[in-house]
Amino acid sequence: MNKFRSKLLLALISLIIIGLVGLGILLGQLFKSNYLDTYNERLNKEGSLLKLYIENNGGLNSINQEQVSEISRMLNVRLAITDNDGVLLYDSGKMDQTNINGIKENINELLKEKSKQETKLVEQDEYDLHYSWKPILKAGEREGYIFIITKTSELQKAYGQIWLILSISLVIALIVFIYLGYRITSRYAKPIEAATNVAIELAEGNYRARIESDELNETSMLSSSINVLAQNLQEMSKSQEIQQDRLSALIENMGAGLLLIDSRGYINLINKGYIEIFHVESTDYLNKLYYEIIEKEEICHIIGEVFRTEQRVRKHLLFPLGIERRYFDVHGIPIIGTNNVWKGVLLVFHDITEIKKLEKMRKDFVANVSHELKTPVTSIKGFTETLIDGAMNNHDTLEAFLSIIHKESDRMQKLIQDLLDFSKIEQQEFKLYIQNLDLYELISEVITMLDKKAKSKDIRLELEFKREELYIQGDHDRLKQVFINLITNAILYTPARGYVKISLFDYEKTVKIHVKDSGVGIKKEEIPRIFERFYRVDRARSRDSGGTGLGLAIVKHLVEAHHGNITVRSTVGEGSEFIIELHKYLN
């Protein structure tokens, strides 16, 4: 901003110099003209007095050379007296021939011109001469002329003094004006510079900038106006930021996935909900064409339909995500601005998986429980009726039937117990009894419990870990239930001469437990459903072994209750691997 002040000061100085120079020239010319007029008027008066003196004293014949010289000395001029024909009679100057001849020639030329003005400047090589003359009368007749001759060097000297005085005065005035100009520009340019700096800060988004000025002058209104503007902009910016934060918080935490697509088909916005639902990166989606980046065709069809019809579209979609199948209520909304300008499409994904599960649970619970209980109840009833009808009299038949009834009763008891356990786990008052426990020892106990069952199928049961202790925080009984269910399932679905391998991995803050078998495996499309209640991959095998279809559902809930997660890797015919990740410390 110093440039502005310098330019302003330079412009002001230039104007002052131009003005002073013009004023000096004008004053110089005026002084020169006034001095010349005064000089001519003086010569004119002196000539009139000399003329009157000569005429009153008897004319040309009454004067002599000494008188002419004396008067010339007194007036500090050169006097020359001629007759009517211009013949030089008296001359107060030096009487050398060259000088006299020059005077004669000039006088003769002046008399020949018969100019009405009785003054004239005659230019010469060495110096210029100024002539002023008056006719001398005697008895009313012109007798001759008296000439007053002066060198212009006196005029030049006078002019020089005038210009010197003017120059000194102008220089002093210039210095004073420059000083005043600097003070004025400093006084008025400084607030303008401050206002400009604040305006630049405002343009760059710094709405806290203010002009600090306590002076009450012409620029205070500008300062106060800019400060008011800055304050209004700051309040507007703060309000806009609050609204933006609210909108961002609403969009990011609305509990639904959101996708905004512009009129050209480019994705402009993707919220946290969508990222968490589909496990994608925002950088992979933003500013990309939707049909190039979205892999699920159902979503692309909804977007295309909204583009074609410009109407709201709502559909229920089912997607397999990881080990689960998720249901979504998808809304496709056209965005139309003022004047029916097409803005794009807004896609909202509401996760209704739990609602669907509840609906399905309400529909299937009675059927599943009835179906699961029907078989053992029918068996118990049938064998009991057979025994009552007389089969109990046969000892072998009685023993065989009672064994079957006992087995079916155990199956009923296990199903009821699993239902009770699952009901407790889903209740809000369900609590874990957290304690420090040795995970290696816990799994070793489970393997000892199930070793007999594994050996009965000629299955090799292994535990792999480098150490013999691994402490974590958790509920001992619930985690034991988790591993019993997982290892039991692995033994159940592994054919003879296979293996079940449990591996422990110790990390800084977490532990991972891998339960891998060489069993029949699970189809890829069935993996998302294996944690559903009453769902069985092989219904015949699980029913024959007494399975209820609730084991893996219980496992998943218990793992999640410990803030862990469970994943599955499986290939049909090669076996399955369940991976549980638990935190060492839950507090």
Structure, described:
54% of the residues lie in helices and 21% in strands. The protein is an alpha+beta fold and 587 residues long. Helix 10 runs antiparallel to helix 11.
- Helical fraction equals 40-55%
Low-confidence stretches: 539-546
- Secondary structure tally, helices: 15
Annotation, overall tally of beta strands: 17
Note the main attributes of this structure.
alpha+beta; 5-stranded antiparallel beta sheet; 587 residues; 17 strands; rod-shaped
SSE layout:
Blueprint (H helix, E strand, L loop, with lengths): L1 H55 L8 H11 L2 E6 L4 E4 L5 H17 L5 E4 L6 E10 L2 E11 H52 L16 H33 L4 E6 L4 E4 L1 H7 L3 H4 L4 H4 L3 H13 L3 E9 L2 E13 L5 E10 L1 H36 L6 H32 L7 E5 H18 L3 E5 L6 E5 H17 L6 E8 L3 E8 L21 H6 L6 H11 L3 E7 L3 E9 L4
Parallel strand pairs: 12-14
Antiparallel strand pairs: 1-2, 1-5, 3-4, 4-5, 6-7, 6-10, 8-9, 9-10, 11-13, 14-15, 15-17, 16-17
